[in-house]
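Protein modeling request. Please complete all fields; requests missing the sequence field cannot be processed.
Requester role: graduate student
Desired output: 3D structure, token encoding
Chains: 1
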Amino acid sequence: MDLNWIKELIDILPETSIRRKNLIAIAGYPKWEIVNSNLLAFYFDEKEEHGFSRLFINSLFDIYETKLKGTSQQREIFETDFSVDREVATDSGRRIDLLLREDIEVEYDNESIIPNWAIIIENKLFADLYNDLTDYWKSVKADNKIGIVFSVNPIEISQKLEKKGVKFTNITHGELIEKVMQNLPEFYIDSDDRHLLFLKEYISNINSYYKDKNEMDKMDKTLGLFHLEKDKIKKFKEVDLELLKYVSKSVFEVMTEMGFPPYSTKDSSKGKYFYINGDSNLNNILQGNVDVAEKFRFWVNLDLLRYSTTFEASFELWGKDNTKHGDKLKNRLKKIQIFTENIQIGIEGKSGGGYQHIYDILIKIGDFTNVGFDNKLKKSLKENLFNHKNKFIEKAIVELKEIIKNE
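Delivered output (407 residues):
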């Protein structure tokens, strides 16, 4: 079977990236608008404990002024103290996501006194802009007003609103955090160390929105390439499965001959358990200790064996009644010092758990061109695992028997 096409296909496949998990995603709220709005309210509030002062509002104005060159709004007007409110009710009962307003001495509902300025923010992630921005605009009383629509991807705001005197500008979350990162050094010294870490998590979460889009584009390209090579790929998958079955059957035969038949003969599993057969001719291994030997089993990684000709397995205790002896058993085996480069003390599992590795096994099968895979596999396992020199299996059984006996 000609496999040169695989290399050619791999060469033109787009690279995939590994994404670090951020705290917001781990908590399960990476794309919740309400969570994002709460975080924005926290960061825009210059009085909050983060110590970033006016980092976010200054960054907002940097972008705003770039987008609206020649605007009549003077930044100096907005440099007074201000408050940040969430879910502010409009005249028609709708809710404004965030409202930044100049602090004044009296209550806002006193219509005779209005603040000098206000910034009305509608926060979007991936939802469409269906909100009545005219209602938002008219409901907020201030001498100077700015309307902002945050979104992940650019949103076109109707020009009809501008004609009505409703002035909203779209700024993406990506634009905001990029400007925040540019301006952060100015506020770094006075910021809280813990909140610097939190800010990194917030920025990481925002960046994930754009990585998602990039990853989708890559997957679209990959899917298109797979469509072009679908017949070859289907054939390759069939051959791949046949190889797994061939490797599995070879392992089944060798392990059965050694007295450890597979739990089942299903030959398409990527891993398999092998339990001792007390009726087999295993006198050299069991030494009359069938009841102790049955507390052990092998687990073999069949998937790895077909790709790297490496026999990876573990010899483990299974069941809580048996694994409770695992730590003691490993300590006794360490003192005997029987380990080789192919067989080391087990790592995974724990005493009192469902399983505990006693030996971790990694045996290179090597080239099998002249002798056949099954013959080379059998030879390698007999020499490195089931040999009478080191007696890995026998010694584990004998040592466990002594532990149980002395309980």
